[in-house]
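ESCALATION

Customer reports they have been waiting on this structure for their group meeting. Please prioritize. Original submission:
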Amino acid sequence: MKRILIIEDDQSTLNALQSEFENSGIETIGCSDFDSADKAIKNNIPFDVVILDWYFVLPDSSNQSKLILKKLREKVFVPVFIYTGHKEDAENTRGEDFGYPKNMIEIYDKTLSSHELNERVNNKLNSDLTYKISLKYRDKIYVHLEKIFFELNDIGSNALGKILKTIYGNGENIDWNNDIVLTLLHRSLISDDIFTADIKNILTSDRTELSVTEFNRKIINKVVYHHGKSDYIRNGDIVKILKNDNSLICYGVIITPDCDLENNKTRYLELIKLENLEKINENLNENKKINIKACFNHGSYYSFPAIKTDGSLKDFVAVLKAKIILQEKDIDQNTGYPEASKRLLYSQLFTLNNSEVRIEFICAKVNPYKAEFLQKLHTNNSRVGIPDIKNLL
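Update from on-call: job pushed to the front of the queue and completed.
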């Protein structure tokens, strides 16, 4: 811990806390009013911990403190220690959703001395795996990212600009630009032996036995899928196909969207149907379902474990022989085969078997262009990793 943000409107309490942590060699940022706290959160001076008065500024309300927690959530990952004379109210508020993860908040009464609070803070930080990993990655990513910019600068603006502008196009291929920068960052990180050893030590000391629980399934969902939202339809997007009345037709995964650069006249979406693992062909017994889920080697099904839909985690499979073609709807009804849009969007309408449908984004498979089922079915798809730079020169 290098720096701590203390948000406390009682000056004597603020002074005592600052004195305690500074005597331990930790820099403090003290805020006794809302404007100074807001400024400290918005600027780029990093801090490792926040100590927050629960009835900050207001004598009988935690509204300002909740607003500070919301601002923190939008800015930085940091453990929060509520230090208050209103512990019971703070505990009762845990059930509310005020925008900050509850497992990152600890609550202590002000009868606890500043020295004891210091000890509690250190104990928490020494036992929190996410916090320890965050310290290592923040320090190293910053250093290595700056190193990458020096390397890119050596290429020269004209050559670099020619490549990146060709890849970026009109903004539709930002993921290719990202591939280049993030690949360089990844290579730089794994070449850092000190960083690798530090992460290994953290993970070794925090190793615990895993069990099949809902928490493990949440981890799978976080790592395997991306839940961001964009109007652009992309490879690997997992979607619902809906009727006009919002009733479900089926689930699917996009395998050839309108961004196929080898065939710029593509005017349709191609999907593979997804079905709930528990509801697929009844002649699959439990052992066969386990094999599909664990081995990814069934000839007819490809496993998609732990997709969060309708508020719960469900295991799906891609039915590899069940393709779905969605045609871009001709809004103007001028032609039976409408002029293709630059990119197909979720906000558009489509037709399936002559019926109007729409698609709704659920999540996207991380790195879908390296997914086995996509490579097997569409090995000629142009969107597989970074394009060949030589062909752009």
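Sent to customer with the following note: Residues 259-264, 371-385 have pLDDT under 50 and may be disordered.
Escalation resolved.
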